[in-house]
Design brief:
The protein has 5 helices and 7 strands; from the N terminus they run βαααβββαβαββ. By secondary structure, the protein is an alpha+beta fold. The protein has a single domain, classed as Aminopeptidase, CATH 3.40.630. α2 packs across α3. It starts with a strand and ends with a strand. This is GNAT family N-acetyltransferase. Keywords: Acyltransferase, Transferase. One of its GO terms (molecular function) is acyltransferase activity, transferring groups other than amino-acyl groups.
Length: about 170
């Protein structure tokens, strides 16, 4: 059975094992999501502890996908705190463990996090992703509009530069 649900900070910390496994799987699999190799469970734990703090502060929405009681996917929206951008959020870290891909979890995660962002008054979401990645191909199918590409914006975990494609979506 698949369950899509939001996590608060305490629940995020309680799910560290599954969340760290997902993040390590994605980074070690080559996903350009802000981390470099070597990437360890300690690095992943530090990241998720920071996410938990941001969720508790009300700065981040955190949604997970569970299959048969195990968390195998996650996504976040960072809520802009800038006075001139109360309507905007940043979609971050749409991650699905490689063993759980092909189950439609990305769409379910996106639908839920977008709905929650809209409920909180957000009307515009933005994201960036590595050009040519699997992730780049899915966002247009979910209604996201491609803005453009910035060359050499980030690096893959192995240190190679990668272009980054930006997207936006109006919600709510």
């Amino acid at each position: 059975m698949t369950v899509i649900r939001m996590l608060n900070g305490k629940e995020t910390l309680s799910a560290l094992s599954d969340l760290c496994e997902i993040l390590c799987d994605c980074v070690n699999g080559g996903a350009s999501v802000g981390f470099m190799l070597p990437f360890t469970p300690v690095d992943a734990t530090d990241f998720w502890q920071e996410v938990a703090k941001n969720v508790d502060k009300g700065n981040t929405i955190h949604v997970v996908a569970e299959v048969d009681g195990k968390i195998v996917g996650t996504v976040q929206v960072g809520l802009s705190s800038k006075p001139n951008q109360p309507h905007r959020g940043d979609l971050m870290k749409l991650l699905v463990h490689r063993s759980a891909r092909g189950l439609g979890l990305s769409r379910k995660l996106m639908d839920r996090v977008e709905a929650e962002a809209a409920r909180l008054g957000r009307t515009l979401l933005v994201l960036d992703t590595a050009t040519g990645s699997e992730a780049e191909a899915i966002y247009p199918r979910f209604g996201w509009e491609r803005v453009g590409v910035i060359p050499d914006y980030a690096m893959h975990p192995d240190g190679r530069y990668c272009n980054t494609t930006w997207f936006y979506k109006r919600i709510g």
